[in-house]
Specification:
It contains four helices and no strands. It is mostly helical.
Length: about 180
């Protein structure tokens, strides 16, 4: 009678399994892979927002009321449209880097560059969204109300997307020291 082979995860005689790494431990390559995947997931969410703004802006130009916009409003429209296109391109760049440099040994560098690019994309997206708000509010409420409301919106983006992460990172760094 033959015995069944041991399961693949069974310890072999005379072999000591290596100790499990401590919880939360990652080597730099694994950490870079995880960070890149997380960032690419976050960028998918942002891309949807960019696409919605861009679609809205494309539709505006083909409405009958577009010809009634003032020259200043048309300028705001053009700048906002271009900001949204550039935001889409910039926010898609980390995806292109990941695809173009797949299995590249310098993954940590790819993550570092992609984070900077994503931050620039956030700035462009915040600008495009603020421009869209300015355009709509200028048409609906007039310039006198549109400008301060848009400035408040831009300030909210600045605080939530840039100042808050900086403050949390600074606080966490201070807590570690």
């Amino acid at each position: 009678m033959t015995s069944a082979p041991p399961p693949p995860d069974a310890p072999r005689p005379g072999h000591r399994p290596s100790p499990a790494p401590p919880p939360g431990w990652e080597n730099p390559e694994v950490r870079a892979d995880r960070r890149l995947v997380e960032m690419l997931q976050e960028l998918r969410v942002l891309q949807t927002g960019v696409q919605i703004v861009f679609a809205f802006l494309l539709g505006v130009a083909f409405t009958p009321r577009f010809t009634q916009l003032t020259d200043a409003q048309q300028d705001i429209y053009v700048v906002t449209l271009l900001l949204s296109v550039v935001a889409a391109a910039v926010l898609a760049t980390p995806v292109a880097l990941h695809r173009g440099l797949y299995h590249h040994p310098g993954k940590q560098r790819i993550v570092t560059v992609s984070v900077r690019i994503a931050q620039a994309g956030l700035l462009l997206l915040a600008s495009a969204l603020s421009g869209a708000v300015l355009l709509v509010l200028d048409v609906v409420l007039g310039t006198a109300l549109a400008v301060p409301i848009t400035c408040a919106i831009a300030l909210i983006f600045t605080v939530l997307w840039f100042v808050l992460p900086w403050a949390v990172r600074r606080s966490a760094t201070r807590d570690r020291d």
